[in-house]
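Task card 7
Instruction: Convert sequence to structure tokens.
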Amino acid sequence: MENNKISISINCGEPGSGKTTKLIEEAMEILAKGESLYILSPTHKSKSQLNKAINKAVETTGDNTYKELFSSLHVLGNNYVGEANILLDEISMLSLDNLYSILFKARRHAKKMLMFGDIGQLPPPRGVGTLEYLLRYNSRVLNIDPHNFWKGISSLYEHSTNIELNIPRQWKDDIYSINLNILQKNYRLNFESGLTHYDDNFYDYVFKSIIEKDDYTQELVNSLKESRLIIAPSHSLINSIDDLLQSHYGNNYNQVAPFVRVGSRGPGGKTYVNPEHPHYAQLLNRFYSIGAMPNNTMENYTPTSAVTAHYIEGIENDGVTFYLGKREITSSNNNTHFLNNNMLYTAVSRAKSPNKVVLLGKRETFEKMRQTMPIEIDITANNIVNQNAKKNTMTKIKNSSNILSVDDIYNLFLEEFEKEKVQGKYDDLLDLTPEKPRYIMNQFNPRCKNFKTLPQGYGQHYDNWNKEQLNKGNSKGGKNKKGRGKVQQYVADLFHNNLEEFNALKEEALSKVSPNDFQNHRGYNKYSVKDAITKIEAIN
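Output:
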């Protein structure tokens, strides 16, 4: 081991490939050797699922030594005191920021780090996912086209086995080696159906269960009767489900709904197992990670029959109903953070058998969801860095007695952007660029909710800057024509007169080609071209 650096081994596999079983086996072997152990979960729900798995191991084997693992379970690096072996569960949900925090604490202490996860599952709710970042960095090693990452990664579980990965530049101070082990065999899928992986054959199979109609009340009622877990991508769709079932069951809905919602019916509320349900104990065992409502809960709660996909990490159930209702994916409402292949995969893979998956919604929407890949991590990272830079910029302005000019404000933002870019430790894999002046100047709009917190003296900054931009646009003919400037005209001409070349330009602008190479090849700024492409496609 070079200079006491950490050796990483990643066990990657689909739901049903035995990741949790392997984690527990590895943990028990470490304890049997008398070595120190620290098991980390990214969320309390995933920790609860590990608790359940350990209890099951005790019941199955009668071996109480498994209980020794309970004291080693932690969430997000809390209580780490220098253990030599670190096991990380659900690594796809661990953000890079969280990983860097763990590495900092483990420096000069940990010798081995074992990770377990599934690249197809949902990413962390905030930040860049560790597993996706690492696999993208190793696209060439994995023989995956980096411009078509998600389609390439789908074959990883079918063909790959044991691979030595390259270490990202920013990790080399702490990491000695990274080994990727693919758990290929799937123990959950129904071999009678001929399915062995969550691949195109699987989706073709479950898409036979799509039900498309105007009223889904009866299908939702059947789901409850058959103890299927009802999943929806958003709280608004869950509210639609509850409205249909409440109308059907009336006052009896309190005893029928498997869950309750405390607080808001939106993202701010919390879901628990329904204490009024006649089979409460069985439900609590099935949905261990969702858990019981705290005894000290004072707020009113309402019955609910569905959960979002983010609420079900690690859960498996005999059957699943995935509800989209009348939801459509159009150019104006497509949200790739939710309505994408990873969301679909996470939902349907909760079912123990593909024969017990029911899809309620428009076939066209499910097909689009199947083909829609998640947001590129470049975009996620870029948003994070820009948001943090904006926050830091405004904090400094609020705490300063000097009134800065518009140019000085934007220069301060650029300085904060570069600091955040370095602090985030995003490798060269990510193409990060600062937002344009409007991004920061919108904070000085008197209609902005934070405007009142600014020092006096910024009252006219936004209006004066806005007028200046308008005058610049008019001087370039912007008052009389769509598209101002050479870049917009160049992109518009290709779009209308040479679609093949336009598509080639678009592909290059969205690729990992460096801004300098793009400028040398095309003669235009890469990011200006990307903006112009977005605008021309939106208009047309």
